[in-house]
Amino acid sequence: MFLSEILYPVHPEKFRKEILGKKLYWWKAPSGASERYSNLYSWEHFESYMNNWENANHVQMAEADDEKQNGEDGKWDKGRHGKLSKADVYNLWRHGHSIVLPFCEYQSKHLWSVVNTFEKQMPFGKGCANMYCSSRQNSHTFDPHRDSTENFLFHIDGQVKWKFYKQGKSGKPKQFEDIILGRGDLLYIPIGLIHKTQPIGPRLTASVHFQSKPKKVNRDKMYDWYRWFDHQREIKI
Predict the structure, then answer these.
(1) pTM for this one?
(2) Which sequence spans correspond to the domains of the chain?
(3) pLDDT for 19-51, tens place per residue?
(4) Residue-wise DSSP of the chain
(5) Distance between CA atoms of residues 10 and 25, nearest Å
(6) From CA 57, how far away is CA 138, in angstroms rounded?
(7) Contact at 8 Å (CB) between 203 and 140?
(8) CA neighbours within 13 Å on the CB side: how many for 52?
(9) Cys-Cys link to 132, which of 32, 196, 205, 206 (CB 3.0-4.6 A)?
(10) If you average pLDDT over residues 199-225, what whole number do you get?
(11) What is the pLDDT of residues 183-209, one digit of tens each?
């Protein structure tokens, strides 16, 4: 995979010089290409991972309790808190609490390829792919916040309204733009830009994000199961 394929029609060099770290940028899906990210992840991936509850350690949930007892950001994390059962999480999910699955590049060879391509061809540090999953319209997400990473949002299914804010003179963030991200759209959010999401219905969004400090990452040294299976198929033909 090449970076030019991911960023098309914006040339990677133009992206580095004119967009990276400077402004929000939105790639709308070309006509007839709304399914172009459907191979990155799917509801079937999500269902399979969540049903394997005992081994599904990387599960987070937005606003799992109203008093935000599990952290200042209101994020419940199975790996850290672990107080909710599979049934508890399912009921919260049905009632509109969004689920976040970190490290999804290890569940999908296509996401792995996207993360790997960015790491090798952009001045970034190590990357990660989080999957944002919402069950219905107006599902609970996070309050307006800013991230310390470079973010690329690959929108796989559904629609989400994104609201963006600037720091007002009074210190209170003031909304300056909103967009509706649709199936097949890609969105770049630079470090520090305040934002909030509002699902318009069931949605799947892959957040592929990177540390800003350049750092050489060699994913070829990791156990690449997909490449091994491809090799086995080749030698048997």
Answers:
(1) 0.87
(2) 3-236
(3) 999 999 999 999 999 999 999 999 999 999 999
(4) --HHHHHTTS-HHHIIIIITTT--EEEPPPTT-TTTTTTT--HHHHHHHHHSGGG----EEETSSTT-TT-TT-EEETTTT--S-HHHHHHHHHTTB-EEE--GGGT-HHHHHHHHHHHHHSS---EEEEEEEE-STT-B-PPSB--SSEEEEEEEES-EEEEEEEE-TTSSEEEEEEEEE-TT-EEEE-TT-EEEEEESSSEEEEEEEE-SS-----GGGS--HHHHHHHHHHHH-
(5) 10
(6) 26
(7) no
(8) 10
(9) 205
(10) 78
(11) 999 999 999 999 999 999 999 999 999
189: amino acid identity, one letter = I
Mean pLDDT, the chain, rounded, equals 87
- 3-236 domain in CATH 2.60.120.650? yes
Tokens matching residue 130: 């989080």
Query: Residue 81: which H helix or E strand, with range?
Result: none
Nearest of 132, 139, 129, 141 to residue 62 by alpha carbon: 141
* 3-class secondary structure, 27: strand
> In this structure, is the dihedral angle defined by the CA atoms of residues 63, 195, 56 and 90, taken in order, positive or negative?
positive
Contact at 8 Å (CB) between 154 and 114? yes
Cβ atoms of 159 and 201 closer than 8 Å: yes
Nearest CA to 5 out of 34, 32, 37 is that of 37
Mean pLDDT across the stretch 156-177? 90
